[in-house]
Amino acid sequence: MRKAGYIVDAAKKINKGSFNIEELKELSDSEIIGRLSSLNGIGTWTAEMLLLNSMERPDIVSWGDMAIKRGMMKLYGHTGITKEQFDGYKKRYSPYGSVASIYLWRISFE
Q: Which residue of 24, 49, 92, 95 shows the fewest CB atoms closer than 10 Å?
């Protein structure tokens, strides 16, 4: 029920005009994450998933996504992954990180 409340709250803000969802299209990924995270119930991971799946942004690789991390560990033969390692791989994938994310998700479930 709490998640449903977050959705209703966001919809009310959009409907009242206190959150302009249309202007997100013109913002950078980090600006969008900041704006979306200002809404109750939306954190960085949720904002990144909206960027990747709904807005089809091309360079999203989420540190907060366990499947992406698991895919990287499998792909590169690691038993764990540090933020530094993750950021290095993320940089390699740029500017097509979203494509890499899709493949890493697949790898993580094999």
A: 95
